Sequence to fold (386 residues):
Amino acid sequence: MAAYIVIANPQDERTRQLTGVLTQNGVRTTPIEQLDDVLKLLPENEHSLVIVPDFVGDATNLVSFSQKARGRAFVVYISDTISVDAYKQLSKSGAGEWIRWNNLGDELTEVIRHHFSGTALANGSIVTFLPSAGGVGNTTLALETAIYLATRGKAKRRVCVLDLNFQSSDFPTYLDIEPRFDISEILGNPSRLDQQLVDVLTAKHPSGVDIFASPPGRFDYGRLDSTVLFALLDEISKRYDFVHLDLPTMWFPWIDNLIIGSDRVFVTGTYNIPSVKRLTTTMQYLEGLNISANRVAALINQTETGLFGSGVVRRSDITSALPRVQVMFIRRDDKTALDAINAGRSISESGGGRGLKKDIRQVGEWIDRTKHEAATAIRSAALNRG
Fold:
């Protein structure tokens, strides 16, 4: 289940309370900074849920918006008070509802159950890979887990990887594919954004994973309109079971909203003390965004198998430093990784590396559980309805 949420500050206490209720009800949110921007994103053939807290707009603007979006959106306005006239107009339109902050959990849960009753999961799960530093293997892990989901078992998944490193994507040289995802073209004419354009931007990999990677070149991140980026992500997620996001090392204002809207968040690091310290800092930042711990995992890459139980760094030291999240260890296997790079193929397609592939599989299996959890949330909402 998915909804649009208009938020200005992801770390605001009421924003965190709101996103917490939505997450508990199995709702994946697309964060938007301005209410008017939502109109650009609403699909014509769907009745989307739009959540608007009072600190980003008053009820008068909301009534006007609900009238413009009639038939395409159901608006939920959250405020302790609302004028009689605004409430009458909102209720009379049949396109909106007012709920109060002091009863947010119960009232919003009821609205969600009513709105999504009988609704199937329309969009794919968003899986975000967030590097704690450069060179920690973030791109490799985003790709290898995607290939695992797309190729293993009877229930093969439709999976893509969206590389948000717009200046220097590693995928074209790593996999010997054509980089077709030129974000500048989309920003120049966002009205072209549809499923046909998504086809044009897609690079096909033999594993069945689709890759969205940019050609090398200079890109001014200051030009990036987050509204267009979220619209693109929404369009892409309509055709996949899982969308893996490879985030850049540098922080940008839109990254927080991407993380908030993700079903799984992996923070990647390496098997050493400085990296674990950076991981801990990043986890504390995610807690500030009110990201539920059961959606977050730490990936400790390049783990030295000869140091288990001895040496300067031990697994128990790392898990103790990250007590509230899942911690997964990816062993170091330089030969398998180097052979794959030189051959222009993935680790999954390479010979050898049995232990490394086993570690990748455990990450893939944890990702795959998001579908089961989402389906359980829908069934629970249906059973508790009324």
